[in-house]
Amino acid sequence: MTVPAPTPAASPLPPILLVGCGKMGGAMLEGWLERGVRQAVVVEPQPASVAPFSDRVTVCAGVESIPAGFAPAVVVLATKPQQAEAALPACAAFARAGALFVSIMAGKTVAGMTALLGGEARVVRAMPNTPAAVRQGFTAAFAGPGVTEEQRALADTLLAAIGEVAWLEEEALIDPVTAVSGGGPAYVFLLAEVLEKAAIEQGLPPELARRMARRTVSGSGALLAASPLDAAQLRVNVTSPKGTTERALNVLMAPEAWPKLMSEAIAAATARSRELAG
Ligand SMILES: NC(=O)C1=CN([C@@H]2O[C@H](COP(=O)(O)OP(=O)(O)OC[C@H]3O[C@@H](n4cnc5c(N)ncnc54)[C@H](O)[C@@H]3O)[C@@H](O)[C@H]2O)C=CC1
Ligand SMILES: O=C(O)[C@@H]1CCC=N1
């Protein structure tokens, strides 16, 4: 087991404008607030989405009601891809003022977003995931044309505040990233759901089944995070020869089972990410 190195003093977060505060935008904002962001303005037309933040940040129903004089260093675009055409043109003034754009929208290309932002925007395309809310996210990012080293460092500071960051040299790699880490938490939560259901089927009381499934998934995640061992070795460490886990894994790891299903699932999600680019 490794002891984590002490975290170096973190740089202050820049003033942020968040456009779209739904499930992913809200998760990132939660992480930034926990990390101590000082200036954040949120544009969100749905009051219910932004209610958990309304006493901590400035909330606007539209770009036109952003307080005069607020000059974001970074504009984070977190609407659904299908909402981009309505949301982005209103942000063009921030591009002209030199703000960096960080988009988390699945499928939306840098070129497409730059066009919607009036042609002058500097855009980083990023793919985070919802564990950002507890600063345990994983984000892969691609810096579009014209993004300076300073702006890339700014985006890195913002994304590193909510978890681990990896920079991509090719924009097209965002599609498989979207499938694997962007959507990945959903597959892990599905595991907790089906484990709970299977526990109930074997006669365990529902509340106990729920607690066990949640803790088994979250505890295994914590062990994976803390251990230097590969996931495969951690799996082997649970599996006694001729024991009970081996019987279960014989089912899960059969040729047509999990490994094949996961490959098909990731291929389907990657294809959908490419489709969204239009
Ligand atoms: N949910 C997730 O786990 C992840 C989502 N993403 C991306 O994040 C984006 C948002 O996804 P979710 O948060 O799941 O969707 P969501 O529907 O929960 O959030 C989108 C938000 O944008 C708001 N919105 C709509 N039009 C707007 C406008 N003109 N101006 C400002 N806000 C507007 C909506 O009211 C809504 O609250 C998507 O593009 C998705 O591809 C990326 C990684 C993971
Ligand atoms: O499902 C989606 O399209 C988004 C992108 C990754 C996670 N949620």
Automatic annotation (TrEMBL):
Pfam families: F420_oxidored (PF03807), P5CR_dimer (PF14748). GO terms for biological process: L-proline biosynthetic process. InterPro entries: 6-PGluconate_DH-like_C_sf, NAD(P)-bd_dom_sf, P5C_Rdtase_cat_N, P5CR_dimer, Pyrroline-COOH_reductase. Residues 17-107 form the Pyrroline-5-carboxylate reductase catalytic N-terminal domain. It catalyses: L-proline + NADP(+) = (S)-1-pyrroline-5-carboxylate + NADPH + 2 H(+); L-proline + NAD(+) = (S)-1-pyrroline-5-carboxylate + NADH + 2 H(+). It is found in: Cytoplasm. Keywords: Amino-acid biosynthesis, Cytoplasm, NADP, Oxidoreductase, Proline biosynthesis. Pathway: Amino-acid biosynthesis; L-proline biosynthesis; L-proline from L-glutamate 5-semialdehyde: step 1/1. Residues 171-276 form the Pyrroline-5-carboxylate reductase dimerisation domain. The keyword NADP applies. SUPFAM superfamilies: 6-phosphogluconate dehydrogenase C-terminal domain-like (SSF48179), NAD(P)-binding Rossmann-fold domains (SSF51735). One of its GO terms (cellular component) is cytoplasm. NADP(+) binds at residues 78-81. Belongs to the pyrroline-5-carboxylate reductase family. This is Pyrroline-5-carboxylate reductase. It comes from Teichococcus aestuarii. The lineage of its organism: Bacteria, Pseudomonadati, Pseudomonadota, Alphaproteobacteria, Acetobacterales.
